[in-house]
C-alpha cells in the first residue's frame, strides 16, 4: 500500500482487521468481517464507515450563494442554515461534473461535499467559475475527517455521545459546532446507504477518537465497522448514483432519473440550457433498474444489455443484493425500452440471460417488512 | 493451515487424487480473499480440460474469479449443491464445497503441483506479510 493516500483512520482500520485496498489512490478497507454481514448490519442495526476521503470545500463571501447556484442544478436558494441539499453539478452540455451535497452554514457560507476521486477537478471547476465574484473557495478536504454512522440504531448510538437533540433533527438537516464525545464536530443527518444515519465531520486529527467513541457507544446496538464493499452494495440497493458509474461527463441528471434535483426556475446556471432542451425534446436514454430472470451469473458494470440480438445499453452497476437475495443491476437503455416489466437480455460472458426492468429505487427504507 | 492430503496450484485451486480421478476445489485462502460467494458457474460434465485452463467461474459480492483446472482430463462429476448454495464455498471449501471430479488424463501432472507446506508459504508471500 506504498504511495497511497491514507485517511486519519488508516491505523485504526489495520488494527481492526480491515482488508486494505487501493481505492482510486486511497488506502481504504474494502471489508472488515465480510461485505454481506456488514451490509445486513446496516439494514438491521448499525454500521460505521470511514468517509474521510470525501472532499469538502468551504465557500464564503458576499457571492457565495451566487457561485453555488451557478455550478449546481438544484435550487440552493431554498436552503437555510442547517439544511443540506443534494445536487448534480453539470457542464454546459448537461453532463455531470460531479454530484455533491451543499451544506448551508450558519455564517451564510456553504460546505460542498464532493467525491474523493473528483476533488481536484471539482475545485478547479468551481474556482474557475468564481472569477469576478466576491467569494472565497477553500479546499479543506485534507484537514477534515468524516465518518458515516448508518442504520436504524444510529440515533440511539450517537445520542449517547452528544447533547445535541438528534430526535429533533430531520433528514438532510445538520448541526455545526456540536460536540460528539467532547470533540467539536458538524453532524448531518445524511448518508449513502438508504438507511437513517448521520455523517460526522471533524478535524482530521480527532477522527480516530470519534471513531472509537462511536464504536464503543454502539456495542450494545450491534454496530460493526464497515468497508467500501458494503458502502457500494448499500448505495446500489438504494439506487443512489455513483460517479463514474451512473454519472459521468456525458449522461445528464434527467437521463439518470434525478429530475427532482434539477430546477428550471431558479435562474441561469451551467448546463441549464442543455437540460431544458433535453427536457423539452424528451430523453433518449434512461437509467433502468433490472433483476435477472434466468440464473447464470451476477450483473456487473460494463456487461452489455441486448434486445432482439443487438446491444442496446451497458450495465452501470450490478451485484448480488443481500437484502433481496436477488441479482440486480442498473443500466442506460433507449427510453422506449425502459418501462418496468419489459424483458431484455444481459450478456454474461457470452451467454444471454433474461432480465426484467423493475422500478427504481430497489430499496426504500420502511417499505420492507 | 491447508490440508496435507492434497496438492495446490498458484492460482488457488486444490486437487485431491482419488484413484484414477481427482477432486477439485478452491482453497480456503481463495474463498477468504473472494469473500461472500454468491454464484458458481459449474463446468459441464464431459468437458475436456487441460491443466491451467479455465474450469469454472466463481462470483462473490466483490469480484468475478476464474477457477483453473489443476489437472488435465475429463469432468465426470460436478457439485450441483453449489448451484443452490454457493455460500458453501465460504463455509467448507476443502470438504463439502468441492467443485468437480476429473478423470485424470495425465497422473504425472500431479507432481507439478505444490504440496500444502509450499502452498502455505506461497500464500504468505503473496499476501506480503
How would you characterize the overall build of this protein?
The complex is a heterodimer of chains A (369) and B (129). By secondary structure, chain A is of the alpha+beta class. Helices cover 19% and strands 34% of the residues of chain A. In chain A, the strands form 4 sheets. Chain A has a 6-stranded mixed sheet with strand order 11-12-13-10-4-14, sandwiched between helices. Chain A has a 6-stranded antiparallel barrel with strand order 15-18-17-16-19-20. In chain A, strand 12 (183-188) and strand 13 form a beta hairpin. The termini of chain A are far apart. Chain B has 129 residues and is an alpha+beta fold. Chain B has one domain: Beta Barrel (OB fold (Dihydrolipoamide Acetyltransferase, E2P)). In chain B, 21% of the residues lie in helices and 34% in strands. Chain B is built from 4 helices and 9 strands, in the order βββαβββββααβα. Chain B has helices at residues 28-34, 81-84, 88-91, 116-127; strands at residues 7-8, 13-18, 21-26, 37-41, 48-49, 54-60, 64-68, 73-78, 100-104. A 6-stranded antiparallel sheet of chain B has the order 1-2-3-9-8-5. Chain B starts with 6 loop residues before the first strand and ends with a helix. The mean pLDDT of chain B is 95. The chains are: A alpha+beta (369), B alpha+beta (129).
